[in-house]
């Protein structure tokens, strides 16, 4: 069994979409990035790559490469899952936390969880997605950005 942790931050700005775990959330601001800036999926991919000993998303999908401009992070997650399969690894479970002052995310978490479980190839009860504010403190508290943490367990095929 292998464990991995991922963390990512993206800035909230006008005229961008707010996409978290592949789900578009209606809000007046969205996340800035080279890709779709889906901070939750980025943290998840970093946890998966970390557990597999495969580095990080910046190494796998450089933000200097125009091929990734505006790309859906779910497509990148699909590629990460292919990299894990190539090493004989599958996901056991995943737990994630989104740090976000606004908007309220509770109503979207079940949809995000179901979608990510599908991409991870595991039942929904092996995936958990939580949201918390940071009580108005720091950059997430001021609404300047959204951060996400992810922890995953990987299992070896046949293990
Ligand atoms: N953007 C957010 C942040 C939090 N929630 C939900 O509210 C609960 C309480 O949050 P605290 O930061 O006060 O602990 C939290 O457990 C989430 O369920 C949310 O929906 N959206
Ligand atoms: C996802 C990638 C893809 O180019 O771009 P960004 O959206 O800028 O996101 P970041 O979290 O900075 O990770 C780097 C890149 O891998």
Automatic annotation (TrEMBL):
Gene3D superfamilies: 2-C-methyl-D-erythritol 2,4-cyclodiphosphate synthase
Protein name (record): 2-C-methyl-D-erythritol 2,4-cyclodiphosphate synthase
Binding positions for 4-CDP-2-C-methyl-D-erythritol 2-phosphate per the UniProt entry: 8-10, 34-35, 56-58, 61-65, 132-135, 139, 142
Cofactor note text: Binds 1 divalent metal cation per subunit.
InterPro entries tied to this protein: MECDP_synthase (IPR003526), MECDP_synthase_CS (IPR020555), MECDP_synthase_sf (IPR036571)
Keywords, in A-Z order: Isoprene biosynthesis, Lyase, Metal-binding
Organism of derivation: Lawsonibacter faecis
Family of this protein: Belongs to the IspF family.
Required co-factors: a divalent metal cation
An example Gene Ontology biological process: isopentenyl diphosphate biosynthetic process, methylerythritol 4-phosphate pathway
E.C. no: 4.6.1.12
Quaternary structure, from the entry: Homotrimer.
Entry-linked HAMAP family: IspF
Pathway it works in: Isoprenoid biosynthesis; isopentenyl diphosphate biosynthesis via DXP pathway; isopentenyl diphosphate from 1-deoxy-D-xylulose 5-phosphate: step 4/6
Stretches assigned to the 2-C-methyl-D-erythritol 2,4-cyclodiphosphate synthase domain: 1-154
Pfam families: YgbB
A single MF term (Gene Ontology): 2-C-methyl-D-erythritol 2,4-cyclodiphosphate synthase activity
Function according to Swiss-Prot or TrEMBL: Involved in the biosynthesis of isopentenyl diphosphate (IPP) and dimethylallyl diphosphate (DMAPP), two major building blocks of isoprenoid compounds. Catalyzes the conversion of 4-diphosphocytidyl-2-C-methyl-D-erythritol 2-phosphate (CDP-ME2P) to 2-C-methyl-D-erythritol 2,4-cyclodiphosphate (ME-CPP) with a corresponding release of cytidine 5-monophosphate (CMP).
Catalytic activity: 4-CDP-2-C-methyl-D-erythritol 2-phosphate = 2-C-methyl-D-erythritol 2,4-cyclic diphosphate + CMP
């Amino acid at each position: 069994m292998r464990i991995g942790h991922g963390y990512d931050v993206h800035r909230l700005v006008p005229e961008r979409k707010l996409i978290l775990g592949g789900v578009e959330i209606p809000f007046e601001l969205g996340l800035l990035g080279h890709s779709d800036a889906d901070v939750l999926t980025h943290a998840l991919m970093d946890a998966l790559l970390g557990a597999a000993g495969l580095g990080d998303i910046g190494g796998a999908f450089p933000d200097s490469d125009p091929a990734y401009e505006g790309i859906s992070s779910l497509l990148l997650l699909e590629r990460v899952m292919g990299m894990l399969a190539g090493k004989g690894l599958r996901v056991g479970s995943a737990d994630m936390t989104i740090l976000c002052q606004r908007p309220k995310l509770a109503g979207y978490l079940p949809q995000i969880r179901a979608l990510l479980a599908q991409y991870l190839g595991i039942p929904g009860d092996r995936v958990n997605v939580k949201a918390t504010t940071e009580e108005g403190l720091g950059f997430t508290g001021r609404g300047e950005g959204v951060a996400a943490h992810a922890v995953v367990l990987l299992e070896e095929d046949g293990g």
